[in-house]
Design a protein that fits this description.
The protein is an alpha+beta fold and 655 residues long. The chain is 31% helix and 26% strand.
């Protein structure tokens, strides 16, 4: 009987097949070790094994591909039973130069409908709330992913292939396919994308976007990747990502350039000078790098999240900055005045000063809950300091009473509401998860036990999304698509649940949610050209989060952002509760990442002093790789301020 993760070779009519088994169950097979597509050919050349030796420590295999290629491969077994590293060495013996693309894949042998994950890029079936058929073949550039690799699950098995973002300066790729009874995951070198490559220059639907490698006679190449496999536990990805993270940290280092207090001072200067409008008492969400004035010509103002005002209040009170405190109080007064007839907060403000809903008179759950949460935190902070804000309290309690009234018996809190009637207009997804955190904040300052009961019921309801490893709904623009924000909402909610009710269930849900967030958080530093902004400034991507998977045509969130700092404190506290340094390190990575690219002087990377980009383009998608969005986001800047203020308060040496 084989051990978990044991590899063995089987002789069959086609040659030698490498198989992975668990007990007596065959989980994976690996026959066509290396395939080569030659430019101009319709079908790839199929590699075959001709000799193999394997033992408890690894092994070596030899093979051929067509008449002109040979390869050898060293197999190195890791200390963890289910991981093996493959190092291929290929030699081209043809007489004429060719352009080629290599691929290698693993077949998942067990039954059941497959599900997939490319971390930060693709989850489950792509659109869990959609009627669209799941794609049967998708291929991606590795630099789109937070941990370059691909996972596949069936009823009883899990397999994963991981590799470096680049080999010899060329971007690698990953793919999955499901063709009838065959379910497979694979790697490409160089990269390929299919179909509807999400971003700049994407091909026509159902076509391939292939990167070719030019090969001369007698050229030699190396392809290195790791294979993990085991039982079909959906959460098994966490073991793989942890292993990958610790491998990458040996060579992919963080590079913070500023200390916490320097970051806070710069962020406050930018927010007050470039985003704050004292005449309207609002913070504009975006401010362009190259404009001295804020453009407020649209009919509807694009406003920053309430978390930003709360961060300004925190800074203003701690450092006795009157201008900052007065601005924050003015902003929060304005927020408290924005209750819709339904009882919770309007999401938008018109230029004429009237509050308004999203399209279709819609109020989104995530925005309403976030506003409630941070206004409640601000009120509690002020109440402890002896500063009264009865309008804030009334607004928070109104919003919490609204959501209690619409909560279903099963705990569901809805994903969107009619601004006038309060009727729930959409129950799908987990957009209401952040209400759990808001309800607990309300319970803490009001003592109303009904809020805690509603939070408990809601936390139990939304646990199903965490357990399914697919949390979605916060970003209402793309129904059914998971985003990093969904994970942040979960960690904010479940850590508060555990703080109020020290039940292991809540701590486990917080841990599971944090692990899911890490599928969006980069474990490595992407390679950027020296003629790009990120390349010139040696920007390190380790610790930055991918906003959301890209949608076909380049829509979505295929860029890096700093919004993960909203739960920086909760991630640190989780690490302490579990006694697990992994979460502390990954929290620190996020904080240090966004201490890198902040304009310390007027004109730094084209920005005004204190500004930081709202988007960092780690791959070719919504902007060229290595460039940034040439605007500052008040919400992202505010969360950088928020997390660094938390660090200063909890780690005095940080200042």
């Amino acid at each position: 009987m084989a051990l978990e993760g044991e590899l063995s070779f089987i002789t069959d009519p086609e040659g030698l097949t490498l198989r992975g088994v668990l007990g007596i169950r065959r989980l994976i097979s690996y026959r066509n070790f290396l395939n080569i597509l030659v430019k101009g050919s319709d079908e790839p050349l199929m590699g075959r094994l001709v000799h193999a030796e394997i033992n408890d420590y690894g092994g070596n295999i030899l093979g051929r591909i067509g008449a002109d290629w040979s390869f050898s491969c060293d197999i190195n077994k890791a200390n963890i039973a289910s991981m093996h590293e493959f190092v291929f060495r290929m030699t081209y013996k043809g007489r004429e130069p060719v352009d080629v693309n290599f691929s290698a894949e693993v077949i998942l042998e067990s039954e059941g409908e497959p599900r997939w994950m490319v971390p930060g890029v693709f989850y489950k079936h792509g659109r869990p709330a959609s009627d669209e058929a799941a794609p049967n073949y998708r291929a991606f550039r590795s630099d789109r992913s937070s941990h370059p690799g691909v996972f596949g699950w069936t009823e009883r098995s899990m397999a994963c292939l991981t590799l470096g973002e680049q080999i010899n300066g060329r971007v690698t790729g990953v793919y999955f396919r499901s063709d009838g009874e065959t379910k497979a995951i694979g790697v490409h070198f160089p990269c390929r994308e299919k179909p509807d490559a999400p971003g700049v220059g994407n091909p026509a639907p159902n076509s391939d976007d292939i990167d070719w490698l030019h090969v001369e006679p007698n050229d030699k190449f190396q392809l290195r990747f790791k294979l993990y496999f085991g039982p079909g536990n959906l959460h098994k990805y966490n073991d793989v990502l942890r292993d990958r993270y610790y491998q990458d940290t040996r060579t992919h280092h963080c590079h913070p350039r500023l200390e916490a207090l320097e970051v806070c001072d710069l962020a406050v200067e930018s927010l007050l000078k470039r985003h704050y409008d004292p005449t309207r008492a609002v913070l504009y969400e975006t401010s362009a790098f190259d404009l001295a004035a804020i453009d407020s010509s649209e009919d509807t103002l694009d406003l920053a999240d309430t978390s930003c005002a709360h961060a300004l209040l925190w800074y203003g009170r701690k450092f006795a900055n009157t201008d900052c405190t007065e601005a924050a109080v003015s902003l929060l007064d304005k927020t408290a005045s924005g209750l819709a007839p339904a009882g919770t907060f309007w999401p938008k403000l018109r230029t004429d000063g009237a509050w308004t809903a999203e399209e279709g008179n819609r109020l989104g759950a995530w925005r309403a809950a976030e506003t409630t949460l941070f206004l409640a935190q601000a009120f509690a902070r002020e109440m402890k300091a002896g500063n009264a804000h009865p309008a804030w309290e009334r607004a928070v309690l109104s919003s919490l009473d609204f959501v209690r009234a619409i909560q279903r018996d099963d705990g569901g809190l809805g994903s969107s509401y009619d601004a006038g009637t309060g009727e729930v207009t959409d129950w799908d997804g987990a957009a209401g998860l952040l209400w759990v955190a808001a309800l607990i904040e309300g319970y803490r300052f009001s003592g109303n036990f009904d809020y805690l009961q509603a939070a408990t019921l809601g936390g139990q309801y939304y646990a199903r999304f965490v357990e399914d490893e697919c949390i979605f709904g916060a970003d209402g623009r793309f129904a059914g698509t998971p985003s990093s924000v969904d994970g942040y909402n979960g960690l904010l909610a479940y850590m508060r649940m555990y703080q109020e009710d020290a039940n292991a269930q809540w701590l486990n849900l917080a841990k599971r949610t944090a692990d899911w967030i890490m599928t969006f958080r980069c474990c490595y530093n992407a390679a950027f050209s020296a003629d790009t902004i990120l390349g010139r400034h040696d920007f390190r991507t380790r610790g930055a989060d991918i906003a959301a998977p890209a949608r076909p045509g380049g829509q979505g969130g295929a860029y890096l952002h700093s919004r993960g700092l909203v739960c920086h404190g909760e991630l640190v506290e989780l690490g302490h509760h579990l006694g697990d340094g992994y979460y502390l390190e990954r929290a620190r990575d996020g904080l240090q990442c966004f201490r890198q690219l902040i304009a310390c002087n007027e004109g730094d990377f084209g920005a005004h002093k204190g500004m930081a980009p709202g988007r960092f383009y780690h791959t070719h998608a919504q902007g060229p790789k290595g460039e940034v969005g040439h605007f500052a986001s008040a919400s992202c800047t505010g969360l950088v301020l928020y997390a660094n203020m938390w660090d200063i308060e909890h780690t005095p040496a940080a200042g």
